[in-house]
Amino acid sequence: MAADAPRYRRIAEILARNGLGALAAQIGLREHLPEMVRRRLPREDAAADGPSRLRRALEELGPTFVKLGQMLSTRDDLLPAEYTEELRSLRAHTAPVPYAQVADVIERELGAPPHELFAALDEEPLATASIGQAHLGRLHDGSEVVVKVRKPGVSEVVLADLELMRTLASLAAREWETARNVDVVALVAGFDRTMRGELDYRAEAAHAERMRRNLSAAPTVRIPTVHHELTTAEVLTEQRVTGLQIDDVAALDAAGIDRTALATRATRALVRMVLVDGYFHADPHPGNLFVGEDGTITLIDFGMVGQLSESVREEILRLLFALTHGDHDGAVSALVRLAPPRGALDRRRLTRDLENMLEALSAQPLAEVPTARIVEELTAMLRRHHLQLPSDVSSLLRMLVLTESTATVLDPGFHLSTVLTEVIPVALAELLSPEALARRVRTSSLNALRVGGELPERAGRLLDEVEARGVPVRLHPEDLDRAVDRLENTADRLIVGMTMSALLVGIGTVVAAQPGRISLRDPLMLVSGGATALLGTYLAAGAGPARRLGRMVRRGLKGPQ
């Protein structure tokens, strides 16, 4: 940490200059504060104007910290609304780099100077961001493209900042209870992964290709073509998108485009990404959606994507179903599975808070309540109960709010629930398909086998520990037989469960291998079933040692007769 002392001192001074000296101390930077500040340091920074002071400090700290603030602006489950709202206005003060440096990066990455690779490439950037900048170009075949180039030296700065953030997160977790409550170490680790992905344009290219495959059945939604031969970690070349920005109402009307139908099509595509594909564009603001003359929608900029597992999507569907059917206990169960508590949870109080929230929203049908209001109330409730959503689920909530906001610009009478009721049955059919069920059975069964296989070793370690420490065990003689019988019965149930798991793994494998052609007479089914039955028999042989263990425990605890 000594080598980084100047950087820590700079962070501490910037925080103190913006009235956040107590925050600097709470994240482990007290010793780097000026002595005068340390002597006058309050226990907490003044609440007044806190959000704007934090925003200014992050902007002064540079692009990586601005990106961190922008990520935090989406975490309404972690920060009060006044902070997330202020952080949404964060802007990185970045200037474009000279074209000569851009040309150097292109030649180094692609092996030839720009004039050989492109028929034309504008020297003035089309857009500039903290990490890179974009230039319009034309290929030798006449295709118009956008070329994104990583700014020289940015990767080194970002990686150094990320290392510093990880250290600060560890310090903060030791010094500050609030940091521990929000699991700041995991939060920064997730941000680290995201930023490293943004530093590699090949990741963005892969996101675009996957989105194109997922949307192949939706002819009215397009993804720009990536020119992989002109793409590396630091250069991305993709098809130029022309058209109207989706929130340009006057231009859409002039072009004769049906805005109501457009709102539904755009929302359907974005919601389907979430609930059906589990892979979605996490930043669908109007600047990233363009509309062609024929009404087709083109999505751009895949630097931010979210990914939801089948199990998470299932819990989201459970939550939606429970909320719309008044099943408050079911909604709480789904919430807790989505956002596991970090400490003791008062489930009764959480259920009561959920009921109060729904009561407050009941002035109009839930389907007509703006998504932004539901998300605001829900995340505030999660924050009160110290329930923290996974980052991708938090990104999903922000994405839904952005989507409905854009749709209501196009159609003021639009309700997200209209599209949800259309897409949810499709999502359920996907999650309940034979292939999806086979995947889940296989995964769950393998997990059960793993846990069952580890149990004897863990039990042995526990018994060794008991023996080594001489832990006294008190059992009344009349209870002893019942206790050991329960041990043997538990072992029997475990063996049966493991045997069934082995069988289910085989069945799941067959279903996944031959979807739609499942037959008990299929040779593959017979071979797989036979093999898993043998495996189950092998596991069942372990019941004998389990019973012997029970007899040993009985004899040992009763002592010599």
From TrEMBL:
Residues 90-332 form the ABC1 atypical kinase-like domain. It comes from the Bacteria. Belongs to the protein kinase superfamily. ADCK protein kinase family. This is Ubiquinone biosynthesis protein. Keywords: Membrane, Transmembrane, Transmembrane helix, Ubiquinone. It comes from Brachybacterium aquaticum. Pfam families: ABC1. The chain crosses the membrane at residues 494-513, 525-546. SUPFAM superfamilies: Protein kinase-like (PK-like) (SSF56112).
